[in-house]
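Why does residue order matter? Because the sequence determines the fold. Keep that principle in mind as you read this record.
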Amino acid sequence: SKYIDESVTPQYSFGYGLSYTKFQYANLRLDRSEIGPHGSLLATVDITNQGDRAGCETVQLYVRDLVASITRPVKELKNFAKIELQPGETKSVEFQLTGDELGFYDETGRVIIEPGEFKLWIGPSSSEGLETSFQIK
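Structure:
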C-alpha cells in the first residue's frame, strides 16, 4: 500500500489559524489541584498581544483523562473564549471546569465520573499552549 508510510496527523491542528498579531500565553494556574466528582476548579491564563496591531484570539481549554477505565480522547475541547487585545495589552482569561463535565458514558449508558489524574491545556489550538494537571478524588 502506498499510504503505509504517510503521516496520519492532520496538516493543521484544530484551532489553527493565522493572525495579524502574535499572542503570548503565560502564568497558567489552577485555584486547586484536586476536586471531588461534583466539585469545580478555576483555570486562569494571562494572554498578551505582542504585536503592533489589535487582534482577536480564541483561547481554548482542553482536557485529557489519563486513567479512565475506557479509552478516552487524547485531548477534548471543553471550553473556549474569544478575546480582543490592543497592542501590548494583557488580559487574564478564566475557565470554570466541573467534575460533571469530566464524566463519560459507560457501556450501559450511565454517566460516570471516575477518580484519577487529568491533564489540562490552555492555548490557541489543540497542538499549542500551556499544560498543567489536576486530580479528581
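The longest strand covers residues 55-65.
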